[in-house]
Amino acid sequence: MTDWTAGYVADIGYTYGYYTELNPQRIKLPFLASGLVFPEVGTACELGFGQGLSVGIHAAASVTAWSGTDFNPSQAGFAQEIANVSGANARLFDEAFAEFCARPDLPDFDYIGLHGIWSWISDENRHIIVDFLRRKLKVGGVLYISYNTQPGWAAMVPMRELLNQHADVMGASGQGIVGRIDSALDFAERMLATNPVYGQTYPLVAERIKRMKEQNRNYLAHEYFNRDWHPMSFARMAEWLSPAKLNFACSAHYTDHVDAVNLSEEQQAFLKDIPDAMFRETVRDFMCSTQFRRDYWVKGARQLGTFERGESLRAQRVILVNTRDAVELKVSGARGEATLNENVYTPILDLLAHHKPLSLGQIEDAVKGHGLVFAQVLQAAMILVGKGDLALVQDDA
After folding, report:
1. Cβ neighbours around 159 below 10 Å, total
2. Pick from 374, 352, 360, 272: which is nearest to 315 by CA?
């Protein structure tokens, strides 16, 4: 009998999460900040949409025509239901990647997104996806992809294998996935309590096991207990995507664009001396011990001129989506938590407190009296959008 799950956990549903990075509207600001041309997204696709909250919201709240698939029929059924209720322009299927990617009725796409998929599937499915990107992503189109990466996961690779082996070998067949997860975590905790050399070499693993015991079991099942689990270096990802003619554009995680909260001055200087941009990304992952990358790749990167970039950035509108008093002047990065400069952020937040859209150019003009320049406005916008306090505003159309 064919295993339709292909080794992926299917006896417990995925979490009902919304993943803001999948929103094509978010492409614009980091692309402009990086000096790159971005596409206007009329057609979009999400591969492996889980419960479908993200694709349902993005289809309902825009004029973009969405397509997508998730192999789990119960999850696809829920996603179809919320799309139907909202009247969203979305065609959502319960097909495996091989079946969906071969459909003759799919349009070419301006944008394709995968969140939490790449690291948890087989090489066979990765080849199918890369071929799909080669054939169906338009020239100038953008791929959003997130994945577990090295070196942040290096110490956890053998522990994850131990947890899975315990669940397979020691877990009772009628125990269910949740029971097997609990038993595996208890075993790992007891093993680490014996002070093995592995635990001495990687002391943070014990803390991770402790945190895992407090996490949602649906999340843990899909994160750690699939047959396939492959943290991948940035350089290896570039090799995989090369046949689809994709170039790395920039991080989709907004605070990655602010070096001060992720890198020391010495680290920033070290990275600037590396002439190759791709190798620089690899080294940066060592600096930050990156565990999870959220990246934009583009089919045919094109640079913007300095004037056009400045004009487009100043035209980008933002809106305050949090209450003014709820905005904390703190941000977390690879270096830990940092306190934001009140002299920069207070006048900007006060200006946006009426919860009406303003362009970055309008904000720049309004805060000149506080001695602020556009570079500070842009950095503040990147951080506040990244924190979830601001959102990018769609065109009126």
Report:
1. 21
2. 360
